[in-house]
Each structure stands twice: as structure tokens, then as C-alpha cells.
Amino acid sequence: MPNTAPADDQDLDDLCGVLVADRDEDGPTTYECRALVRHTNSGYSCARGHAHTYAEVRASEGWDYASDPVEAEILAQSGVIGVRADGHPWA
């Protein structure tokens, strides 16, 4: 269920922008998570468990996000491990 609107003094850049699949009275829909985000040196995560690692960190660790097995295979040809959005490798 979508969050309520942020407080007037809350920075919109500190809200999670991950799209969440859901259903409403009209059928399938998506909405932005909009939970509070906590920043770290390597990325950020939100109060609902979504996380993102910065590109520089992924590159130094030898992995990157891949949206499907084909993209993971293309990354593998360059020696990069393709990882799903949930943090698990496609392998």
C-alpha cells in the first residue's frame, strides 16, 4: 500500500523511488515505494527493504545489476557477475 504524502520539510530525494507492483480497483498497477531512504558509503536502502549499491562500488567489487539472464551473460563476457535486483546472481 502506498505511503502517505511526505511531510512538508522532508526532502523528496530521501524517498525510495523503487516501483512496486500492486493491484487496485482497476487491476494491476505500480506505485513508487516512497519509504524513507538511509544513505551509506556504498549505496542506500529504504525502510521497506529496497536497496541500491552505487556504480563505483559495484565496479570495484566486480558485479553489476542485470535485468535478465541475457544481460547477465553479456556482463559475464566482460568478467562481471550479473546480479538480480534482489541481490542474487543470475547463475
Characterize this entry briefly.
By secondary structure, this protein is of the alpha+beta class.
Draw up the topology in text:
Elements: E1 19-24, E2 27-32, E3 37-39, E4 43-46, E5 51-53, H1 55-61, E6 63-65, H2 69-76, E7 81-83
Parallel strand pairs: 6-7
Antiparallel strand pairs: 1-2, 3-4, 4-5
Descriptive account of the structure:
The termini are far apart. Helix content is 16%, strand content 31%. It has helices spanning 55-61, 69-76, and strands spanning 19-24, 27-32, 37-39, 43-46, 51-53, 63-65, 81-83. A hairpin with a 4-residue loop joins strand 4 and strand 5 (51-53). It folds into two domains: 12-53, no CATH class; 54-91, no CATH class. By secondary structure, it is an alpha+beta fold. The protein has a three-stranded antiparallel sheet. It has a two-stranded antiparallel sheet with strand order 1-2. Strands 6-7 form a two-stranded parallel ribbon. The model is unreliable at 1-10 (pLDDT under 50).
